């Protein structure tokens, strides 16, 4: 009776726990902590969506059990979104299901299609549920590179030829959490061709489809002809409409995978609260100006954060998408590791970030910084980080340009 349960034994200690504990202690002491560690949107849900929720809640009939796979109007609204945004046609009856956020959908589909010992291919680093949803279901996970390029494709080829048993499924997530990498349609074409050839399911997490900052608009893998033969895609209203706490997401694509998820969910839940589903229809089918406004808020925050970090002497790449910056630990602190550095930054600068190790072993050496505070607070955070870097003599010395000669001695 002293042994841990089998599935619990397969879950490692929660990497974020140490930083979260330190954060809670600091707040208990009355310290002002700027929390950039959790991807929790702080912008308000657009008013027309909230109004539709309030209106529907007033109807007592909406308080009964709902529909596990989503009310018909919601599934049609999601199909309409795919038609407008990606020029992809979906059958709302067989190719769409509503989920309690994309995280629940991913975990339950993993449970539906996984046999003990199956090999699943997952980018490393990646969002934890991408691997642990399958690990909980009894699978073995093989890590592949997280970059949407030839390196990942070569790794996939090696995995197919050297994994026993042969991989049955592959997870991709672009724009990526935590790395902020963005894929293009050419990459998806190669990925789909590979998966069809080797009969591997693809699960694409497109939660950050509308949070992008450059000219590259994130595509859907379902835009590739033939993708629905092997792929299902998860989307969410959490970031697009600042509805994270509403827990409203979707899976769309291959009818066999959608059917498997539908069957599993029919045993587990009665779907989201009906007023939330009705409000989600208003989000997908109503005015879309709010989507661009939310995107612009994150773009402004990204620019403020990256400029401030560069001024502090911390060279962090500017993300093309998602609501995160994936930051290499400054050289001065690399030996601390991502957990140690995160705790030091919290303790001395009052800024919380997420240790990269929490997203997989190849996340070590990085921290994830969320664009989840307003620009004033981000400026405050970067000033504190600049002071922290200076106190530790961690600001790199500017390199002298050898092309510039000293004309005056």
UniProtKB/TrEMBL annotation:
Its cofactor is pyridoxal 5'-phosphate. It holds the Pfam family Aminotran_1_2. Keywords: Aminotransferase, Transferase. It is an enzyme of class 2 (transferase). Coiled coil: none annotated. InterPro entries: Aminotransferase_I/II_large (IPR004839), LL-DAP_aminotransferase (IPR050881), NHTrfase_class1_PyrdxlP-BS (IPR004838), PyrdxlP-dep_Trfase (IPR015424), PyrdxlP-dep_Trfase_major (IPR015421), PyrdxlP-dep_Trfase_small (IPR015422). Transmembrane segments: none annotated. Its EC number is 2.6.1.-. One of its GO terms (molecular function) is pyridoxal phosphate binding. Gene3D superfamilies: Aspartate Aminotransferase, domain 1, Type I PLP-dependent aspartate aminotransferase-like (Major domain). Residues 32-385 form the Aminotransferase class I/classII large domain. It comes from the Bacteria. SUPFAM superfamilies: PLP-dependent transferases (SSF53383). Belongs to the class-I pyridoxal-phosphate-dependent aminotransferase family. NCBIfam families: PRK09148.1. This is Aminotransferase.
